[in-house]
Protein 1
Amino acid sequence: MADIKHYRELLKTKALSCTELTEAFLSAAEKENPELNAYISITKDAALKTAAEVDAKIARGEELGPLEGIPVVIKDNICTKGIRTTCASRMLENYVPFYDATVWELLNAQGAVLIGKGNMDEFAMGSTNETSYFGRAKNPHNYDYVAGGSSGGVAAAVAGKLAAFGIGTDTGGSIRQPASFCGVYGLKPTYGAVSRYGIVAHASSFDQAGVLANSAEDTALVFDAISKRDERDMTSVGSKVSSYENLGRSIKGLKIGIASEDLVASDEEVNAAVENAKEIFKSLGAEIVEIKLPFIKDCLPVYYILACAEASSNLGKFDGVRYGYHAEDYDDVWDMMSRTRSEGFGDEVKRRIILGTYVLSSGYFDAYYKKAQRLRASITKEFDKILDTCDMILAPTVPITPLKAGAQMSPVDLYRTDICTCAVNIVGLPSMSVPAGFTENDLPVGVQLIGGRFKEDVILNAAYAFEKATEGRYIKSLEMGCGI
Amino acid sequence: MMWEMVIGLETHIELSTKTKIFCSCTTQFGGEPNTHCCPVCTGQPGSLPNLNKKVVKYGAMAGVALGCHINLVSKMDRKHYVYPDMPKAYQISQFDIPLCEHGKVELENGSVIRVVRIHIEEDAGKLIHEGGNYLVDYNRCGVPLIEIVTAPDFRSVEDVLLYLDKLQGIMRTIGISDCRMQEGSLRCDVNISIRPKGAEAFGTRTEIKNLNSFTAIENAINYEFERQVEILESGGQVEQETLHFNSDTGETRSMRDKENANDYRYFREPDVVTVRLSQEEYDEIVASMPELPEQRLKRYVEEYNLTEADARLLVKYRKVAEFFEAAADIDAKSAAAFILTNIFKSVPTEVQREEWNIKLSAENFRELVKLTAEGKINKNIAKRVLDRMLETALSPAEIIEKEKLGGIDNKEFEAVCRKAIEENPAAVADYKAGKEKALQALIGYVMRLTRGTANPAETTEELKKLLETV
């Protein structure tokens, strides 16, 4: 299997050099990307430079770290020093940050090789990757389908073997949903587990960076590498447990909650995948308990009110004064800022800024923002209570199977498809999407494992057990990408 | 009709922490534009604030000094407005739970000003208009501020000036700000309305923004008071609006509508965790509070018998007060006189007095006061020595030696006077014969012998005394 362990073994045994491995990924990326559009930028120079350093280390006979020399795709809303970071927006089309995001700084220091910056929905707002200023990333399983969003490019690159693993961000499902659509693992850690420093904020109290990978083991390995406390992010806590070290424990007696009334898919193929996963977990000795999540119906409005409110605030800084897109014709500085924003942002971003500004405005604040904040607090309490009665919750990742491109859904209908994932961001719990089946027309379907606060090790271990029990049959190796 | 002004103040004070409120950039004033900057204070995409704990401490110190209740648990909020010098399009401030609440300031004229709240927040950058262009300097962006909001308790310009003067003194004494209006580290917004004298209901207020000198504050208030009186007396209505004061024309004018129509859309800052002070930290702040100017003033009057006016001048600057106290136990009155009449002349500006970077050390000053008190040198000489000390940093003994100002203690002085009488029998005889003028010759003689170090008045007195016995 083409996982991190496999590539590491190749480097270790000197079956091939890091430069050769990197070149293989780069040429695969260059070949597939014009069609797949998983990358906004392919960072060839940076990749080869790191690869040469790794090779020098190998030549000196030094031991390599677990991610050293491993090709990675980073979502394009994560700042990479000296490498443009666009957020898939015209607004930042040519923005080159002069500092690294902590999550990239950590991986860079550990010798991971940056193949490129992953395509995404503009400012991480969207579920199909179709709001990207650079065009949508396609689903590598079938180009007529969307890769999902917002981390669609990262999911497509990982599934299409244009990188060994990827880093995405998840505000309301942006790692898990594209992972589910593209048939890879996607972990959204507990809020605070991974530093947000250097990640262009969408909704600050929901945003969390996480891992997309081709195996549960890889996901755990990378999660361990990035879940460090960071002084520069006051909300950062880090993770105290090594998820990787804890893989392989028996899940006998693991209590798995299922909310068969409240967290259900509208698509039967998804429900079938959840049902199948339940049976497999049962066969591994897990105990299934029925749980009630009646507050789930409130999650969608709570999420969209609060996330849009924060987004409207976070995106105020893009005014053309300091960096980014700058309108060409204008009367005065106010006009310049107004035109810059009108021309620099796409429709979905504008829609959310307007919505967010509205719910924060005097006269509406109490009815929307304040009420949503109150509900958030009570939902959090309820969720935590339920996770005291079970070890994890098994649910659909997305209530529907992968969407066809250009489906022309109304914005609200599209928002509705976030219901299973955004509920988790409201509460800040860790959650991952695990490949768990295929549709009739051979598209991947994922199921979601939601864990207790900072209990990533529990859901990663469950995912690992599931993968072993199913002998990896829900992970399809595609006829594309790096063949090594 | 008699009109009364009703004023409330919002005073912004820059805190003198070494680093900014949310990043580790320096807070130093000046510097090449945009050199005291980083991703955080220029609002780069992805950057996050990290609250400087010292700012919370300094804010709480201000609160304790103004008799406020300190909220050990508070939070930061985002206050949204669009301006090119505000890189995030919001200012991180405190909205409904400020760090400090419910304090008061008693003024020397008897007025009591209630402090409604003190909160901590970040400063914005500076917008510079140059050749039709806007230029922005973000050096000041993220410098920590406290905003002190008073109740509408001021009834006169005098109240306002006394309050600000007192605030300045307190903040400098507790060492949290240099409060320099000329550098913008103390800025004032004035909320002003008028009402018929004796009325209870408040009138409609206007807000005059960004006043940066005491004169500007005084002129702006007087102008605005007159303007409002004129409007009301001609049957008009005062419009609630924000005004800008032009210190060149001495007039207030309405700021553009855009700046008036602010809906700040406050909400909790999700990037900054709850602001907490532990009970221990609070106790420590209270315990380490230095003596405040008011207490010091009282002590100077009681303990050292100084006049209130002199004492007030001394306590205004902490370093001056400490300098004074280095010699006050020997002779408080002359120590005060030396400082207020001699030393202050060499440091005429506010800033100089506040910085107190004088060559004369406290030890040398103490020595000088001692020499004077013991009669080793007379006051005249002492003043000359003092002037030299301010220039040279030498000790009094060194100056007396170098300038040959010594050797004229009281005993010697008496001897010199006797000698003058003995050696000038003619002048003595003339004097005895009633020619007062003859005394001048004797005085001149003493002066020659002492190379001018003798005090003419003292000499006159001493000679007259001795002549009576001749």
Protein 2
Amino acid sequence: MEKLKAELKERIIENLNLEDIEVSDINDNDPLFGEGLGLDSIDALELIVMLDKDYGIKIADPKEGKAIFESINTMATYISENKPA
Amino acid sequence: MERKVAITGLGIVSAIGMDVQENYNSLISKKDGISRVENFSTIHKEVIKVGEIKLTNEELIDKLGLPKINNYSRTALLAEVAALEAVEDAGIQNIQAYKTGFISSTSVGGMDMTERYFYSCVENKEERRYIPTHSAGDATSKVARRLGITEFVTTISTACSSATNAIMLGARMIKAGKLDRVIVGGADCLSKFTINGFKTLMILSEDNCRPFDKDRTGLNLGEAAAFLVLEAEDIAIKEGKNILAYVSGYANANDAFHQTASSGDGEGAGLAMEQALKVAGLHPSEIDYINAHGTATANNDLSESMAIVRVFKNEVPDISSTKAFTGHTLAAAGAIEAIYSVLALQNNIVFPNLNFENSIEETKIKPITEPLEKELNHVLSNSFGFGGNCASVIFSKAN
Amino acid sequence: MSKCYINGIGCVSAQETTNESVEISDFETLTQSINPAKKQNYKEYIAPNMIRRMAAGVKMGIVASKKALEEAGINNPDAIITGTGMGCLVDSEKFLKAIIENDEQYLTPTPFIQSTHNTVGAQVALGLKCKSYNVTYVHANNSFETAAIDALLALNETADSVLIGGVDEIAKHSTYLHQLENLVKSEDEISNILKSDTQGYLASEGSQFFVLQKKKTSSTYAELVDVAIHDVLNQDQIADKLNSFLNTNNMSLADVDSIFLGVNGDKKGDDIYHSLCESLFKNKQQVYYKHLSGEYNTVTAFGLWIAAKCIKNQTIPEVLRLNDLKTDGFKTVLLYNQNRGEHHSFTLLKSC
């Protein structure tokens, strides 16, 4: 799980082009959207593609993304529970 | 006295008809043009529904009498069919007789050919003829040459509000005395580029779209071209033209809220409608019908309804979106719906909003779902695009 | 007709045009077939959470527009009107490449959003929270000119201040295709563009923005008198059309002191300029600028930027001179541009 979380942070920084952010700047429980990392609805769509491409998980309704992408913790939990065997 | 802007000709190709009459017949008989993609291959073929024109490029080339080897994008082919109909409808014999301009609009441009040949043309020299046709202005210049218009020719691209802005510029050029006559409109063909683009935004519906419905599922993309001939009223009268309607109001405002989404309260949309009413010198209660943008995305329909309720208060006019007939034809949409607005005025009929069942809770707007005959004097048409681009235009009856 | 004054200008280009201490006379003639714009310190102009998704064209547009607005002391113009031939072409290519290579799978929205032609004008508005009229013209070499024509209309209607600009990007594969088609020169064809006997131009990119206002101010550069476009003209029609353009503005060619020409080293288009230089424009002070800017669809905005500076300073640096004719001071400037006989434009400026 810790490995997955670290990997997620790296991929988020890379995919969303968060130039000034380091892995160590993101805490597992920090909100990713709004106040926290400041991500927005377009980033949510980018993250949906990342889940599909990197973890084989498809999300059909963008509204589902809100709960999944709340924090690194919620993302990691969702991925480990839904990753195809 | 400011010059009035008369509409004297219409031309259109869409998924519900290859000319104005066919489009009108489909609208009043509730016959939509939504189907699966047939003209090109895409992995989303079985998933999405679109408003596709069922003529192939080869059939369009024949229809236009073009040489077999040419470098027309599908956007240019569709544009030329519609523009020729509009000019013929306006009874223009000598295009050079008056200072005539051509203002088209597109979002796709020549992308349908570029996406086929972008890499393969390096090896295949035959395909390189499509390299210069990628530019958005290429289709415009081709059609202008065919019509014989050489001077003021330009192209607008403000995503899904493009053609409405073309109508607006044309009307302003006439009012300012810069042009006597101008053919305005837009064209966009279906392409993998736009299908996949809208797919990444997750706003494509897998079913027929349901504008203004509480349970709407997103939009259907479509392809179309439409042009209107605008003439200074004094010239139209002098030439004994049949005036179909007038362009009486127009406005463009920016939501300045988000790159793609509309603001929750539709601020830009509201501003565009209010300013268009002001230009037309009309009170909101004088609008008899709104041909809405109504794309059937969760975001647009809520935002547009909020803006309409704010502008029209307790007197929201009869309203419908015709997107469920044609699909969302992007840059062309404003011209398609301008023609539907003129047809509504000419025939005193409000066209139905297909696939509607339940109102959006926040605004309770209930669109017209069956063709409704009633006296119409002023029709408002909305078009909104990415980048917060909001445009409204008002058409008024010819007396 | 209300007057139209250029009261603020901003320019990102292949030259050091954002550094005020660098003069036009310091600019270096381009020697490559592909000439990227000078990198800017974008973080100075744009918030970090905005910048991360921005295409190069958006960034260049924001810098150029901010400079123009600052100089004119305007923060909420009554219209934002943009011209771009190709839009944010790098992102269009990126999205297209992903569609082709990944067979329409795993595509992300950002490059698609940036590929929309009006993304620069929209993001300039978003940054300013400007809710005014916002339109983008995409008609090849006349994109910027149409933006200027629209601005002149707007100032005659209700607008007091209008922001107009041009922007275009270099993108790798498109430029390569343009080289295959002899639209862009290959590296071995580079020479002095005045003596070029090959087809094609030097590719470049950039963004220029201008604040146009009804009122003359302390920052005024020049009066923008009028702009006209012709989608196509035969060579023998050019003189007639130019004369009638000048006549509508109560002028004749005799009143024009200096002509800024779009000579770009492409033999197919330059023949038109060279023959005019020996006939119609023979006794005029002739100026060229594309050896400094390269060519892109909206490069005439760079031409306008150069012309505005020359008029304000009442000097034409040597590096711009096409002929030896010199006039003491110059009042009226005409910019003439075309591309291989298509997309002709006349832009008329007056000193203030």
Protein 3
Amino acid sequence: MSANDVVITGIGLVSCLGEGAQAHWSILSAGDAKPVYDAERFAPYTIHPLPQMDWSQQIPKRGDQRQMETWQRLGTYTAGLALTDAGIKDDEALCASMDMVVAAGGGERDVSVDEAILEASRSRNDHELLLNEKLTTELRPTLFLAQLSNLLAGNISIVHKVTGSSRTFMGEEGAGVSAIETAAARIRSGQSTHVLVGGAFQTEHPDMLLGYELGGYLHRKRWKSVWQRGANDGGGVVTGSGGAFLVLESRAHAEARGRKAYARIDAVASGRARREGNDLATAVSGLLRSLPDFVATELVISGASGAHAATAAERQALREQGSHAVRAFSTLTGHIKEAQFPFAIALAALALSNEAAYPPFDAENEAAASAPPARAVATAIGYNRFEGAAVLARA
Amino acid sequence: MKTTDHLGRPIVAVTGIGVVTSLGQGLDANWAALTSGQSGIHPITRFPTDHLATTISGTVDFLPSSKEGASALTQELADLSSDEAVGMSGIARGRFDGPLFLASPPVELGWQDRLSLYASSSEEQGYPRLLKVAREKLTAEIFDVAQFATIADRLADKYGTRGLPITLSTACASGATAIQLGVEAIRRGECERALAVGADGSATAEALIRFSLLSALSTANEAPTKASKPFSKDRDGFVMAEGGAALVLESLESAMRRGAKVLGILRGCGEKADDFHRTRSKPDGSPAIGAIRAALDDAGLGDDGIAYVNAHGTSTPENDKMEHLSLATVFGDNLKRMPVSSNKSMIGHTLSAAGAIEAVFSLMTMREGVLPPTINYDNPDPAIDLDVVPNAKRSADVRTVLSNSFGFGGQNTCLVMAREAF
């Protein structure tokens, strides 16, 4: 134990299963969690939609809500849940000195403007002029800000007054891995005392699905668990809307304000192994083995996306490294892109603080836990590139 | 020689720099143009400007990928500047062996690709057609271009950087944030060196229109080279521009051990977010003031410790006023002895790259003993009492520089650089 141990003192979660750390624990630990999904709206793709949201619970001003689209609202809302959970939300001084690292993609484009341009492009050849005509007259000024990656962090500063520092990392699961890794390193080295870190993803938008499907990554047949999606069913990924934010603190900082921690993050590892070829499983094994005492870790919260190469490699690597209780949460929530790794860490922390593993999310493919976990590993092996894993222990 | 700073942390040196802007490619071409007060702003020729309120920019038009879309150009800008910086550092390309921090614009699938995907099928309409094409045809190349992490991944391959590269955005402060992340990693002892890059080749019609809709851009289309006029009374917005810059950051100890030439010291970084508004800064300037003070504290310097300010100086009515307020508040009477100039008067606002480009120019300012001017300073704003190094370069003995970067979304990042360790 050290004063600069990295402990988790706040968790904010939103997924199709509901909102809040406790709600997720209750549903996921009960043993009969059913996925909530919609196979119609974006057929042939299945998505896990947001639950009913009352944005004003965390974003009281209508004016603030209007400046954002769903992605930024979702992230700002989830960040608010984490701050509230950590008892920081209404502490002006703590918010003003709090550092922030957000893992972000981009916001939602205006579908109707895009589609009008696409359709008009069929009957004209002067496409560049067409763009100027349509974009100058039909784009809404506020939408630009709603699309900017760093404006999720900007909105968190405005709505929740977190202003110590603000950094946005971009780029799929790797952004979430780097966000957690950087936040933890800053705390461990004394560069930060408390950090808000996380991300959100809003998949209920055709451009967000296009982002995956241009690479052929989406599952296109009926819903199956992460481990059961076949190559002839499409690319293996079923996406979900959701968010995950964490409050990380140094042990000394948390204790000084009398906060109990969920868990401790002992180490974070990351890498950029190639997806093609046969070396990915070896690389994932190496990543996992680089974590202290991985073999003795009881529980693995896997961020597996279902993408064939990455998911098969992770499965093989986990098997080779011993018999863990592996839980791939995206079976139930869908793949939450930039928020995938923070979400995995949050679920690992909840299991440690409740001193119980989750029952299998897919009983055919996930073994029952043999003992309450004292340690847990969280993974995010990127569907297309980059990977990370962290080991957590009881606080 | 002492290799730790006032807080016992490793001193971070700069051992390689590289730059590309509308003024040209490479350090020599840029420095010569910048110190002769040349403007890189010109009428836009990359795309038609019919219907646009602003028809000028500082685009980089002389590279092979200049017409290939935002992602391709941003990558080339990042690559060219990295190549120059790493080459200068004497570290073998392909064996950099330190982390990579890339500041780049948020990439989206460009219109060129959207329209070509759409034209390749006649079934369905709108997004369902794009999705159908994506499902049924080979679109892997277009996929790669639209992934945020692609450019950094390719740079990591080429330069042999270590670990998972970080792609970041803090809007117009991004370049400074990339440097800050590198400095912090070296101070934590995680690495002996880091490659910090800022690149932005995103001056597309849509990007220009979006900034126009926010009333952020100058519309002085008639005289492009005069359009960017920071601290002038008639300033009317920034000029969108492109560019790239890279810095090899290295612990002073490592640089000395391998006998590398030290180009300058990255002495302090400061940051403070604004919670006032998405595009406007708090009227009292407190976040910018906080960021400057944090950078001075981090550098172990007082309000008399800075010799020259490389201003954010965008030429928007609001930024220049707020920047003056914050400098006056922090430096008080010292400000009278501190020249403050804006590179953006010549190269325009290079957005995600600006912080890195301006850090490179700040280091050159100290090394060469020459202050680059603020050009187009013909009609001074009487409310902004600054020595802006008007219109012509000036020789000066510059030991320390403050470089400011402020961005949409309340981002404020300041860097303090020094000519040598002291």
Protein 4
Amino acid sequence: MSQPVAQEKINKAPTSVPDRLFSSLSRASAVTILLVLSGVAFFLTIVGWSGMFGDIEGMSGSDNFLEYVGPLVFGTVYSATLALLIATPLAFAVALFISHYAPRRLAQTLGYVVDLLAAIPSVVFGIWGITVVAPLMSKNVYPWANDNLSFIPFFSGTASTSGRTMLTAGMVLAMMILPIITAISREVFLQTPRLHEEASLALGATKWEMIRQAVVPYGRSGVISGAMLGLGRALGETMAVAIILSPSDGYFWSILTNQNSNTIASNIALKFPEAYGLDVNRLIATGLVLFLLSFGVNMLARRVANSGFSGAAG
Amino acid sequence: MTANSEIDMPAQTAGITHSEVTSVEPAIAVNNLNIYYDKFLAVRDVTIEIAPRSITALIGPSGCGKSTFLRSLNRMHEVIPKAHVEGVVQLNGEDIYRPDVDPVTVRRRIGMVFQRPNPFPTMSIYENVLAGMRLNANRLSKPDADEIVEHSLTGANLWGEVKDRLDNPGSSLSGGQQQRLCIARAIAVEPEVLLMDEPCSALDPISTMAIEALMEQLKDQFTIVIVTHNMQQAARVSERTAFFNIDGPGQPGHIVEMDLTEKMFSNPQEKATSDYVTGRFG
């Protein structure tokens, strides 16, 4: 007999003062987020408009906007893709090790350390990249890759002696997005139903076979959405790239040279302090492009994640 | 239940009442098996023999260790960290716990069906049946694969229901069909023994009947050991029944009595058994 009463309580709008206070507070927060987001988009569009379609004579260089932003978009996507190619297999392996191989204590410690990576400020990553990774790679790895692999276009050109290359930037970016991909992969791997793991083991699967048969298919979409979130972060990363990369104008496929397409975010950071007039609008317009790019990637990630952990939903 | 004429020579062995008539070599012989979770002794001192190509039921109250015992027969027990056993389990005369025996090879010879149907959700019906075959690295030709799928699904009484939709996901089937798919998957690798851990407890009565009928057919080919909470089921399907019990919480489970099923349900040697099968406890 308590059920109808309880039901009534649930259906009724909250009446007590704290209830109402909390509900309006949370509603206000939600609205604020929407306002901020649309405000940013609005600002970027309004201010960037004249950067996109304004008088080219008023800007440094005489390219039209598409010619200006093209190499930047290319550099942004290229560096982020490199980072993703390096980070995803690594994150996948680390996540599997944590979820299925490491003894409990080691797994916990390792998970904690990987999460700590996410707490390092990007400017520190940038300094690490330019002072440690770049010299190390340009001395030991790049000349070798350049000598032996230059038949692959990516490794052609004159190898950089400073190490301020697209590959260095990609490697440092990879370290920066490693934690999020690892954390999400680890969670989905841990969620693999015991039932499926045991089904595989009972068929006579070795541990690795079990992982391929039960764990990986179950976690696949989780890994993909983790990688997408990582890609979103890599696209917008500013300081590390600004510090490491030696940028040039144009499209460059080679990842070992001093000539590299800059990224949108790093280009803004480098040029904004000295920009004036329509150049400012143009930089802001490139910001709008980056905003849309990240937005698209995040939407894609959301869609993949919602399509269910392929296993669970199937 | 009619009294069976071949059951009148009880034999006493090692403390437990154990009247067993096996003229043939046992498929599985268990000797003084103690099963541990870390330091906790879960099941103590089990000594039984399981006859080939017949159904042996393990019954007993919850927590008495019958599932634990079942899982120790194909070394699935040790999937749980720190779980281990002492004693001997012989499969056709070979000790499966010898240090140089790989649990993986044991599990390929002793298949298992679980309490809840667990087809791989990302695989089609077809691929589910072949899941075990795919583990034996060597490549299967398409005609061979087709034949194994048809043969196994037919063996699991499922072929007629799914032959037109083999590419659908395994999870698109009903619970009872999923369980028969799991049986098809288990028998596809042609194991010597099939372990079933309460295979019908998540199923409706109709599906349960289908599985029981299937077990009746399968026992011509396989040695079947089934754990069941359902005493009627044990009485219906099994030739022999082992009764497990537990003295109290925290105590190890142990085997009280094992005998031909008719005898266990009509005239058991131990009072605990008769109390349990008549529904006085458990």
